[in-house]
Amino acid sequence: MRRVASLLPALIALALAFFLGSSSTRGDVFVVGSDVQKKELASLFKLLVSEKESGATRYTLIQEIIAKFREQGQVSRMNLFLTEYVNQNPSDPYLAHYLFVVAENYRQAGATAFALREYWRVLSSTTDILEEGKSIHEQSLFHLVQLEPSASKRREHFEALKARFQYKMVTPDLYYSWGRTAETLGLWDEALLAYNRFLQFPDPTVAGDPKASQRIRSLVDISQTDRAWVRQDLNALVAQVKRAVINSETQLMETLRAKVGFFTLSWDNTDLTDTLTEAFDIRVFLKDLVLQANSGTGNDVRFEPELDPLSNDREAYLRSTGWNYRIPTWYFYFRRVEYPADPESNGAWEWAGVFFGEKL
User: Fold this and answer.
1) 321 in any annotated domain
2) Could you write out the three-class secondary structure of 213-272?
3) CA distance between the termini of the chain
4) End residue of a domain, out of 132, 157, 191
5) Which CATH number characterizes residue 330's domain?
6) Cα–Cα distance, 198 to 175 (Å, whole number)
7) Under 8 Å between Cβ of 264 and 353
8) How confident is the model over 91-119, as pLDDT tens digits?
9) Are 15 and 127 within one domain?
10) 238 plus 128 within the same structural domain
């Protein structure tokens, strides 16, 4: 039902176009409203016909006609009038404005496919003009990168936007969208360039996606590492971590620890950005605590023989006890790596953090 409703403005315009083609006068379609409104429109159309030169005078008359249609709520007639005028007057210097008005009408009515077509016509068939200091082509490109459902076409629009108006790309959401588009197409180098630019903003946030910045920072950071800590086999990784901790092999433990996004926090804190990494060096922290726990005081670290039942095919938890650091129980956390840019790493496993205390 929603899709049908979004098509109504275009369907009405098509019906009007058919009626115009079969009617004897253009007034049958365009001169509408009350007697007073019809008189006003008839007068404007008469003046428009009498004005032989394309230019400012015609532009002013057409703006008056647009305003009359808008007052009456005759948006479909406005669209038909403007598109017919554009087709019949290809040399008019204000074509970009007229088609942009049509595109905006469709966009505001929810007829996205028709809006996209008109924005593209603005770019492909008109000379750019400035209105109130704003480029019509620039505005059309901004709408195209936001509305275009095809990733490949959307990327083309981003390329055009960057080539012509990069100095106007001043919001983080644009670079985020560009990165997501390139990511969808598997163009990881391009995606990372866009994401790097996204992260350069003082507060890189995306409406509706509060974790976007965290995810992008992780992607960018992991792209700059060798990912040597990643293991294909979870059981092998768990066994290595157990050995490193029990035998106080702190160098091996550091080798196995994820170098991007590693966290240490309690179970009641679900925000992975609020970790001990902000306070001090995790490497030193873990090293000191392992050495303390295994110092012969009878509190040697012990691991459960099996993974915790909370584990699944994306995340795994391993319970351990015997720690001296305030809370004697720790859960070692493992997760699959999400980095599609590297097929060998993507989907493999990493030791990503530690939860303190018994699970809630």
Assistant:
1) yes
2) HHHHHHHHHHHCCCCCCCECCHHHHHHHHHHHHHCCCHHHHHHHECCCCCEEEECCCCCC
3) 45
4) 132
5) 3.10.450
6) 5
7) yes
8) 999 999 999 999 999 999 999 999 999 99
9) yes
10) no
Last residue of one domain, picked from the residues 117, 132, 147: 132
pLDDT in tens, 216-267: 999 999 999 999 999 999 999 999 999 998 888 888 989 999 999 898 888 8
Determine the Cα–Cα distance for residues 233 and 211; give it in Å rounded to an integer: 28
- Structural domains of the chain, count: 2
CA–CA distance, 334 with 149 (Å, rounded to integer) = 36
From CA 104, how far away is CA 107, in angstroms rounded? Answer: 5
Residue where the block lists tokens 């929603």? 2
pTM of the shown model = 0.77
Residue 82's alpha-carbon distances to 65, 103, 329, in angstroms, are 10, 11, 72
Tell me whether residue 226 is in a domain.
no
Task: Identify the domain containing residue 123 by its residue range.
Answer: 2-132
For residue 9 the two structure tokens come to: 């403005």
| 315 within a domain of the structure (yes/no) | yes
Domain presence at residue 211: no
pLDDT tens per residue across span 122-156: 999 999 999 999 999 999 999 999 999 999 999 99
Higher local confidence (pLDDT), 118 or 278? 118
